[in-house]
């Protein structure tokens, strides 16, 4: 046996005896965290979990070469999965906050040519190496909070060349960082102020980028469906084209105005719909029927000073599968602190600690089609594991704003 993590006080496996790979939907299922006390985990040479069980039985698997990792009675859980980030971008947008505090809305700033359009200008201007250095710093910050899998979107561009540049940076990070990355194409993120060839031609240009982005490694396509950005019909058109190519889909849905983003996600059978601050009951119920994961972004509602998504309705009434994500980006959530995201899920989404961890592990993995490889601790799975300094998850979540992570492993390799 290569490694044994032992003296684990409390382990949440996020698993059960059915060994299914799907999401957990509704409050009851999301609270079933597969708790085990006083256990150890055995990991082989390939970084795969061999066995999870009582301390003594697992320690008996040791040989002369086994490396013991002492959890010191701490809490242990699967590596965290951040299923919605805008990781690769140029520059920052701190100058927008005073404008918002003075009364301008996020969409007002975008309409005036700022906001996302500002980051598009910077991302276009910066070299690939500069973008890589900035994103690498961000990814390292994420790792410190126990994140082992990250979704990264393109979308700060107005041309295919800049979309591909962002994708190349994200792929370079995947190769060099040890963190698992999942790539999403989001050319439909903002509409330029001037459209010389007209709006329809612009939408077709976005559609024409998709096969190139897919060939370059994008697995998902995402659209910002919002009043004043992309309409439901435009979103449908772009995402139908993505589906025809065999891409999976996501939607930035109902962030500000409930124009039907949740309903569109249900209609398309999207893997997830994200934000959902303004979604109607009907939209959320349709998502549940269609098996679409609801991805809540509590850092974004906090930073935009908006009421959080209705996670209790999602969990208790609609019985949705709920995941959480940082939405790390320069405009609506400039923070890579996924621990804070989780604390805000507790405090503003009013989720229970069990639900928060399920939303940040197993369900987050399902939100990026990684339910079969990430988000649970189970024999046969990659050893993506976080050892916390605290003895219980409630302490991790309530003592907020700092990292409680002692050690992080990806495929058995220590990355922190
Ligand atoms: O998920 N809402 C649209 N897109 C991002 C924000 C991007 C930005 O402001 O740079 C989001 O919040
Ligand atoms: Fe986003």
Describe, in plain words, how this protein is organized in 3D:
This is Imidazolonepropionase. This protein has 416 residues and is an alpha/beta fold. The chain has two domains: 3-78 and 376-414, Urease, subunit C, domain 1 (Roll), CATH 2.30.40; 80-366, Metal-dependent hydrolases (TIM Barrel, Alpha-Beta Barrel). It has 17 helices and 16 strands. The chain has helices at residues 26-30, 55-59, 96-101, 106-111, 116-125, 128-144, 160-177, 199-215, 232-244, 261-268, 281-290, 298-303, 311-317, 338-347, 353-360, 362-366, 393-398, and strands at residues 3-12, 35-43, 49-54, 67-70, 75-78, 80-82, 147-153, 180-188, 220-225, 248-253, 272-275, 293-296, 322-324, 385-388, 405-410, 413-414. The strands form two sheets. Strands 1, 2, 3, 4, 5, 14, 15 and 16 form an eight-stranded mixed sheet that branches. Strand 11 (272-275), helix 11 and strand 12 (293-296) form a beta-alpha-beta unit. Helix 6 packs across helix 7, helix 7 (160-177) runs parallel beside helix 8 and helix 14 (338-347) runs antiparallel to helix 15. The longest helix has 18 residues, at 160-177. It starts with a strand and ends with a strand. Fe (iii) ion is lined by residues 84, 86, 252, 327, 329.
Number of strands: 16
Helix content bin = 25-40%
Give me the Rg, rounded. Answer: 21 Å
CATH class of the largest domain: Alpha Beta
Can you say what the CATH homologous superfamily of the largest domain is? Metal-dependent hydrolases
Enzyme class: hydrolase
Subcellular location: Cytoplasm
Keywords: Cytoplasm, Histidine metabolism, Hydrolase, Iron, Metal-binding, Zinc
Catalytic activity: 4-imidazolone-5-propanoate + H2O = N-formimidoyl-L-glutamate
């Amino acid at each position: 046996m290569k490694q044994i993590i032992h003296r684990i006080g409390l382990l949440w496996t996020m698993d059960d005896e059915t060994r299914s790979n799907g999401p957990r939907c509704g409050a009851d299922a999301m609270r079933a965290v597969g708790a085990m006390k006083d256990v150890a985990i055995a990991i082989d040479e390939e970084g795969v979990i061999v066995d999870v069980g009582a301390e003594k039985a697992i320690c008996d698997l040791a040989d002369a070469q086994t490396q013991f990792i002492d959890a010191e009675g701490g809490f242990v859980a699967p590596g965290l999965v951040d299923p919605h980030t805008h990781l690769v971008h140029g520059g920052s947008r701190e100058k927008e906050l005073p404008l918002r505090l003075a009364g301008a809305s996020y969409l007002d700033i975008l309409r005036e040519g700022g906001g996302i359009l500002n980051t598009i200008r910077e991302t276009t201007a910066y070299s690939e190496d500069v973008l890589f250095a900035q994103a690498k710093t961000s990814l390292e910050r994420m790792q410190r909070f126990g994140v082992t899998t990250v979704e990264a979107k393109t979308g700060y561009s107005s041309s295919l060349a800049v979309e591909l540049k962002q994708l190349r940076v994200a792929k370079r990070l995947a190769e060099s960082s040890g963190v698992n990355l999942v790539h999403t194409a989001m050319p439909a993120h903002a509409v330029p102020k001037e459209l010389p060839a007209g709006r329809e031609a612009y939408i077709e240009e976005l559609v024409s980028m998709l096969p190139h982005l897919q060939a370059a490694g994008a697995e998902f396509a995402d659209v910002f469906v919002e009043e004043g950005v992309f309409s439901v019909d435009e979103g449908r058109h772009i995402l139908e084209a993505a589906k025809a190519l065999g891409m999976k889909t996501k939607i930035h849905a109902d962030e500000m105005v409930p124009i039907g983003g949740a309903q569109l996600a249900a209609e398309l059978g999207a893997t997830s719909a994200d934000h959902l601050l303004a979604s109607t009951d009907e939209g959320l119920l349709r998502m549940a029927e269609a098996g679409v994961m609801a991805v809540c972004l509590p850092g974004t509602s906090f930073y935009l000073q908006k009421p959080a998504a209705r996670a209790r309705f999602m969990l208790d009434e609609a019985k949705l599968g709920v995941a959480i994500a940082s939405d790390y980006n320069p405009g609506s959530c400039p923070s890579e602190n996924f621990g804070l995201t989780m604390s805000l899920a507790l405090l503003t989404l009013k989720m229970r600690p069990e639900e928060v961890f399920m939303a940040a592990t197993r369900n987050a993995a399902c939100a990026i089609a990684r339910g079969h490889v990430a988000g649970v601790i189970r024999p046969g799975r990659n050893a993506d594991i976080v050892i916390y300094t605290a003895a219980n998850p409630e302490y991790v979540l309530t003592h907020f704003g700092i990292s409680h992570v002692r050690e992080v492993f990806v495929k058995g390799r220590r990355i922190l």
